Amino acid sequence: MASYRIRQYRDRDYDAVRTLFARGILEHAPAGYRHILRSARAQLGLLVLFVAVRVAVGYWVLGLGAVALVLAAAWPLVRSFSTSYVCDALSTDLCDITSSYLRAPDSCFWVAEAGGTVVGMVAVAPSQDPAERGVALELKRMSVSKDYRGRGISKALCGEVLRFARARGYGAVVLSTSMVQVAAQRLYEGQGFRKVGAFSPSLLGSLLCFQIFRYRCDLPGGTAAP
């Protein structure tokens, strides 16, 4: 098992961090696609489409063709959730990581390094939720290279965030993760996080039954929870 170390982000890590983040998010697109196809709403819609085309034209083959076209069109639509999220991150906080996390108050950015290569990352910043401002920090941009998972890196990165928040007297750490990131949910729950809410990122997400889960970990000795 390869050894690794966790350290604060440096400017030379810029390209590696952005690439690692993009790959980590985009790899969840197929799982999102499968989740949506397994939903009762999607299956009912495909069945209705098949029956409607079959009745209208009289050929079941055309009905199957219509379903196939919808399935093919749905893939880029579902993938757009991931690509739009990546583009937004790369053009905002991950565009200038030093300013976003190392110069901003109560913020930080760490990388996990193995063999001179960045294989993991995580950030922390004040929560943007007005109800949590001054009370909770937010764990953000967690990602670990596929080849280095299962070695405790994610747990160690999460631990850095929790220690950082405790040292500054915060009462909680919050985070968001998608419903298809099951491994991430297990990791966070194992570190003391509990699910406190769920929401759809857009109207399209709501129609496709795609949700983002909100998690919270209360810290002993911090400021009182809201």
The order of strands across the largest sheet is: 1-2-3-4-5-7-6
Cα-based radius of gyration, to the nearest Å: 21 Å
Strand content: 15-25%
Named at the architecture level, the CATH assignment of the largest domain is 3-Layer(aba) Sandwich
What is the subunit arrangement here? single chain
Major sheet size, sense and barrel closure: 7 strands, mixed
Structure classification: alpha+beta
Distance between the termini: 43 Å
Mean pLDDT comes to 89
Q: What's the CATH superfamily of the largest domain, by name? A: Gcn5-related N-acetyltransferase (GNAT)
Tally of strands? 7
Total domains, how many? 2
Number of helices: 8
What is the CATH class name of the largest domain?
A: Alpha Beta
Report the CATH topology name of the largest domain: Aminopeptidase
Please write the string of helix (H) and strand (E) elements.
Answer: EHHHHHEEEHEHEHE
Q: How would you sum up the global shape?
A: elongated
Low-confidence stretches: none
